[in-house]
Amino acid sequence: MLSAGGFPRVSGGPRARSLRSWVGRGRCGVPKNPVLVLGVQRPESKHLVFSFCSTTPNPRNAHPERSRRTLLSSLLLAKKLRSLAAKSGQQHRIFASNVQLVESKIPERHMTSPFDPYQLGPITLKNRIVMAPLTRSRSGKGEAPRELNAEYYRQRASAGLIVSEATQVSQQGQGYLWTPGIYTPLQTAGWKRVVAAVHEANGRIFLQMWHVGRISHTTLQPDGQAPVSSTEKAAEGSLSFALDQQGKPANVPVSKPRIATKAELRQIIDDFERAAHNLKAAGFDGAEIHGANGYIFDQFLNSVVNQRNDEYGNQSKESRTRLTLEAFDVVAGVLGANRVGVRVAPYGQFNDMKPDPKVEETFIYLAQELKKRGCVYIHIVRGSQLDPAPVVPVGFLANLRKTFGETIILTGGLNKTIAEQLLEGDVADLFGFGTLFIANPDLPERLKNNWPLATPDKRTFYGGDAQGYTDYPAYQEEFATR
Predict the structure, then answer these.
(1) How far apart are CA 234 and CA 211, in angstroms?
(2) What is the pairing mode between strands 340-344 and 286-291?
(3) How far lies 264's CA from each of 260, 333, 396, in Å?
(4) Mind listing the pLDDT tens digit for each residue in 87-122?
(5) What is the mean pLDDT of residues 383-403?
(6) What does the alpha-carbon distance between residue 198 and residue 165 come to, in Å, rounded to a whole number?
(7) pLDDT at res. 307
(8) What is the CATH number of domain 118-480?
């Protein structure tokens, strides 16, 4: 049986020392934390034949979910040791410190899975599956959401969290035709219908706040002006869905940008604050600031793309992150920091983002500052479906997770198996799926039950009507009609 008591010695040559000494020297983690020590000892020996140690949570600084998983894993290992000892036919003694604490804190249950509930700030999510932002270019008159959009999001409300399609905070922030905004009363009313539909289906939804920066075209900008950015260089190979020379909708090369004045940057921050008030009025559960994929904040974060030399310039981590943090501060001031997340794409090269030698310095500092401010999550673009492998190094992910210490969402090239592995490895807490949600509105159920996945029609990804948007059936509905 499990018992607490004095610690025997650990066999193993120069490593042999008492477990008490081993723990005392901090070999099992943070010395100030209580330590769980498990071991198997033969009755005729003073040495352990197997040992394991793990820190238990310090309530002042522990992440509740990760602490729970650590303790649960330790308890399961203790039971395995007991089973092994019983099978050996010998009366092996199982040593454990703090076992009573473990058993009193942790209910016996299955290991955490992507389909378990999760506490995100003040919001309880029914599972860890996130519907990642998907631009579908189907807004109605005045770039306002319509009933078609409400139905689309309602169908996908089985996700633990929906993050809406990228939504511009101003006309200047728009880079593509028919994408929705959140800066007029008409748009706010349209989003209110969407949020109501999601909430009626017991879903949770954040709005992704967007300013494209240089990824735009003069035909979309106020008074036909050049887009604003941290640079005067156009994004090579990048397209905007705008109006061609004949005034017809088309994919056209993005326009040459201009470096934004300080007054224009202050206006952008004001636009984010106004948008935060609007999305709060629409009833959203929170907001995600889009700092990824080569849009405005990414253009400032990247030390190669950013050509400024002022307090928003490329010369320091503080100056590169300033605009992003200013936007976070005003949005958090309206919604509360525990309802605001930030999406980032370290190492991403979409929209002509250049390889950045200062990428780790920048994003680790950003994570430190977001933690100080109480940011509810960081959403990391791990890589897209088009990438043959994740572009974000594992070591960087581990460093950022340790620095931030709060919820991490990971998106890009995921499937059920990868999500389970990343959760088991404590790499992330929530897992974003984008393209798979298009043809599989009931994706969490399909993944959980290993049901087949439908293939989306790429021709209907952008623009159009219900075809390829709300006409994909749930699996059970589809099965019932066969």
Answers:
(1) 16
(2) parallel
(3) 6, 21, 34
(4) 544 444 444 444 333 333 333 345 789 999 999 999
(5) 83
(6) 14
(7) 97
(8) 3.20.20.70
- 3-state percent breakdown (helix, strand, coil) of the chain, nearest 5: 35, 20, 45
How far the first Cα of the chain sits from its last, in Å, is 55
Instruction: Return the pLDDT at 99.
Output: 38
Which of 211, 317, 332, 187 has its CA nearest to residue 264?
211
Separation of alpha carbons 239 and 173, rounded Å: 15
- pLDDT higher than 80, residue 23: no
Measured in degrees and rounded to the nearest 5, phi and psi for residue 229 equal -165, -170
DSSP symbol at 409? E
In Å, the largest CA–CA distance within the chain is 91
Q: Beta partners for 119?
A: 124
Q: What is the pLDDT of residue 390?
A: 74
Domain parsing of the chain, residue ranges: 2-105, 118-480
Q: Do 98 and 138 touch, CB atoms closer than 8 A?
A: no
Structure confidence at residue 261 (pLDDT): 98
Rounded Cα–Cα distance for residues 238 and 340 (Å)? 29
* CA trace torsion 328, 329, 331, 333 (10° rounding): 160
| DSSP, residue by residue, 320-360 | HHHHHHHHHHHHHHHH-GGGEEEEE-TT--TTTPPP-TTHH
| Tokens 């004001």 sit on residue | 270
Cα separation, 312 vs 84, whole angstroms: 61
Name the active-site residue from 176, 183, 295, 377.
Answer: 295
176 is known as an active-site residue: no
19: helix, strand or coil = helix
Can you tell me the distance from the alpha carbon of 429 to that of 410, in angstroms, rounded to the nearest whole number?
A: 8
pTM above 0.85, yes or no: no
What the block records as the tokens of 324 is 């992003």
DSSP-derived pairing of the beta strands 118-120 and 47-55: unpaired
What are phi and psi for residue 152, nearest 5 degrees? -60, -50
Given this model, what pLDDT does residue 184 score? 98
CB atoms within 10 A of CB 281: 14
